[in-house]
Automatic annotation (TrEMBL):
Keyword Transit peptide listed: yes
Superkingdom of the source species: Eukaryota
Family, per entry: Belongs to the peptidase M16 family.
Residue ranges annotated for the Peptidase M16 C-terminal domain, each copy included: 243-422
Chain intervals for the UniProt region annotation (Disordered): 1-27
A single cellular component GO annotation: mitochondrial inner membrane
Function: Substrate recognition and binding subunit of the essential mitochondrial processing protease (MPP), which cleaves the mitochondrial sequence off newly imported precursors proteins.
Biological process per Gene Ontology, one example term: proteolysis
Molecular function terms, GO-annotated: metal ion binding; metalloendopeptidase activity
Record-given protein name: Complex III subunit II
Protein's membrane topology: Peripheral membrane protein
Family annotation (SUPFAM superfamilies): LuxS/MPP-like metallohydrolase
Protein's UniProt keywords contain Transit peptide: yes
Underlying gene: LOC106774328
Amino acid sequence: MYRAAASSFRRHLKGHGSKLGSTRSSTSAAVAARTSKGGLFSWLTGERSSSLPSLDIPLGGVVLPDPLPDSVEQSKTKITTLSNGLKIASETSPNPAASIGLYLDCGSIYETPFSSGASHLLERMAFKSTTNRSHFRIVREVEAIGGNIGASASREQMGYTFDALKTYVPQMVELLVDCVRNPAFLDWEVNEELRKVKAELGELSNNPQGLLLEAIHSAGYSGALAYPLLAPEAALNRLDGPSLEEFVAENYTAPRMVLAAAGVEHEELVSIAEPLLSDLPNVPRPDEPKSVYVGGDFRRHGESGGTHVALAFEVPGGWHKEKDAIVLTVLQMLMGGGGSFSAGGPGKGMHSRLYLRVLNEYQQIQSFSAFNSIFNNTGLFGIYASTSPDFAPKAVDIAAKELIAIASPGQVTQVQLDRAKKSTKSAVLMNLESRMIASEDIGRQILTYGERKPLEQFLKAVDEITLNDITKISQKIISSPLTMASYGDVLSVPSYESVNRKFHAK
């Protein structure tokens, strides 16, 4: 339409060119040249306005900024240790927002039979009423600055986080410290959260993978790591405000805490946090409770409409055996897997071994994926499968064959390894672009290692992984006792002994 209109205008102008030329004077032409703005008429006719400067000529009075550098040096993590042993760590960022977290060397492994479930309940009690603020006031203060708060509990560590604009760093730190140091544990709030936790336990059957992950730990370990993160209802009935206060007093001590931040100047963070945290008791850090991997079997019948099975083995050394932990991370990426149906469309992980060799070949399998659960001194690695009951024996057999295959020289190709290494580096680098993940990484690494390992060190370690490293770590893993867990229609699941013989044939 617009192109046709422009052609018609051009023909009209050509036919009347002489009349226009005879009436136009030099003065009027000069005025027109100065006042013409172009606009719709010039756009339609394709004529170039004589008043517009050439794009090749820089505009006068405009100062161009310096070009961005080709590369920017990554911000270094700075660490300050207070006199009571508490560590404050941070890295700067050009982002307008900041993420701050208080991380503790405390989790379900430090629980006793009388405090079982305390870590899970404390996660739910995070940012409830303190001795200085009501829960309502805490919510309103967070909302007033557009912040986000959260808490997480695991077997070895806990974390409380606050994310908001940098302008509000003093308010963020003060509120975060108040909620961690001064919880009120009001009876009605504790009872309300206990009801919610019990409701979660009742709905655990809707999450078979989460249920089996819990079962793998209770069946595979003897000692602290066998303690449930999601305590049974009988244990929760013993918890109340005073028992939570006792657990916090014993475990929330200065040497076991790290205040970590991403996007905050270190000197500013220390000046704000030190007066709030320097009086925490300097109680000597206790030895980590012992855990011994023994292997075992767990089976529970459930009305899930399918069969869910997990096979797992020990990863000796855990995070403290850094090279093996990094090789294991790449191995999990190499194995991959996922669900037979992807809500986000095809393409996610479709080049991984388990996707190509299992999910693409067996329509009876709904989910098939590698998993790991690594702790300070030990860990678990295995395969989780979800299938129809009649296909369960075959699915277990396939899982065993895949684990044995990666431990056999020549079964993994260099192309597969290179792809897994690139995917691992890409995932880590993209995750660390999030200030919340960066803050968490700082806190958890300092709790584990006492420092934050340079990112370049991790990337270099990934690049140095060879096919032989993959074979060796796989052989080491499957040489440990088997841990097996199943849920749903378990009648057709092969016996523990028959599966164990596949890995440890005499």
